[in-house]
Structure formats: structure tokens, C-alpha cells
Amino acid sequence: MTDPIRQRILEGAEQLFFRFGIRSISMDEVARHLAMSKKTLYQHFENKEELVLQIAQKHVDEDCAKWGQLHATSEGQGALIEMMMVTQMLRKEMAEINPIIVHELKRFHPKAWRLFEAQRDNLFEQSIISNVTRGKAEGVYRQDLDAKVMARFRFTMVTMSFDPEVFPPQDFDFALVQEQLLEHFVRGLLTEMGAQAWQNLKADPEAINLLSNLKPNPGP
């Protein structure tokens, strides 16, 4: 059974880290944000490294559940519907993340970063491969595409968008960068028929919020 205090700490710290970055937030600030004593905080997490690692695991688990729901909901509706749902999900998530967080995970929290790398290999990459393969069979994606190359390319684009040396946060809107990179990626996949279908889908009022079809995650 999930410990409600531990869950509250994870959710509160995740909000702070995603908004302000990891290094700028101390355990004292996490405790103040939660109106909790440091003693209670340290009873549940030995140190900040453990807290970051558990938040990373929580985020990976939630992403796995979201991707599973997305694939189940888009089953039988076509590769472009699935890609549109991915676009909407990423737009929502990226609006809540400080882009510095990936750089900090890679540099200062390698154990947590390895969880995201495993997610890339086991979930993200396979999802893109599946979508590209599906789109080729439907005639909306180009036949000359190698699905695995496209999957690795997409992950590289996402990782690059988090790099503050490539897209300094003071100069670029992070959500806009993500949205434009994804649109560029999708358009590179499309056949002429697929490009027309994509435009029609983007203009369809019923497709504006496909994520409303996803069921919320069940509680613990």
C-alpha cells in the first residue's frame, strides 16, 4: 500500500524540481513547500539523491502508463491519430518542465538519468518504431524510412531541445521549441497523402483535444 506521506513528498518535490530545476531546490525548501518538518522528510528519504531517483522512477512509471493508454486509445484509428495524441501529450508535459532539468540529471544525477535512458530504449524508441511502421503500412509515411533510425533521430531531437547551450532558456520558449521540432519531424515522415491528412486532422475541431479520450490513471 502506498505511503500517503511519501507520495505527497514525491509529488511536491517533483513540482518544485520541474518548475525551478533540481540544483536550485534544497531539501529545506522541499520541507517548507510541503509545510513539513525536515525530520519527517528525512524519515522517508535519506538524502536529496534518493529523492531525485525516486521522482525519476515515479515519472517513468507514469509515462509508461500514459503511453500504454495512448496506444490503447488510438488502436484502430491510424498512425496519424496516434501521432496527434503524442503531440498533444508532449505539449502539455513540456509546458510544465524547466528545460534545465535534463542537463542537471545527466551531469549531477547519473542514476536517475539512466532510468530515462532505459525508458528511451524500452518505451520511447519502440513506440516511434511502431508508429512509423504502422504509418508506412497505411501509406501516410514514406516507404524509404528506416523506423529505427527515425526513432533514434527523434530522441536526439528531444534531448537537444533540453540543452541550454543550444536553446538558452532566456532566448527560447521551451514549449514552442518542442512543438516546432515535433512538427518538423512529423512532416519529414509524411507522403503527399499523409501531409494532406495531417493538415485535415490539425484543422478538425474534434481532434483538438484527443487526450480527453484517455482515462485518468487509477489511484494507488
Task: Please explain how this structure is put together.
The structure is a single chain. It contains ten helices and no strands. The chain is mostly helical and 220 residues long. The protein has a single domain (48-213), classed as Tetracycline Repressor, domain 2 (Orthogonal Bundle). The longest helix is centred in the middle third of the chain and has 29 residues, at 110-138. The relative contact order is 0.12. The model is unreliable at 211-220 (pLDDT under 50).
Short descriptors:
mainly alpha; Tetracycline Repressor, domain 2; 10 helices; about 220 residues
Explain briefly what this protein structure is:
This protein is mainly alpha-helical and 220 residues long.
C-alpha-based Rg, rounded: 19 Å
**How many distinct domains?**
1
Q: Order of helices and strands, N to C?
A: HHHHHHHHHH
Low-confidence stretches: 211-220
So what's the overall shape?
Answer: elongated
How far apart the termini lie comes to: 7 Å
Q: What structural class should be given to the helix and strand makeup?
A: mainly alpha
How are the elements arranged and paired?
Elements: H1 4-20, H2 27-33, H3 38-44, H4 48-74, H5 79-94, H6 100-108, H7 110-138, H8 147-161, H9 174-189, H10 192-203
Helix pairs in contact: 1-4, 4-5, 4-7, 5-7, 5-9, 6-7, 7-8, 8-9
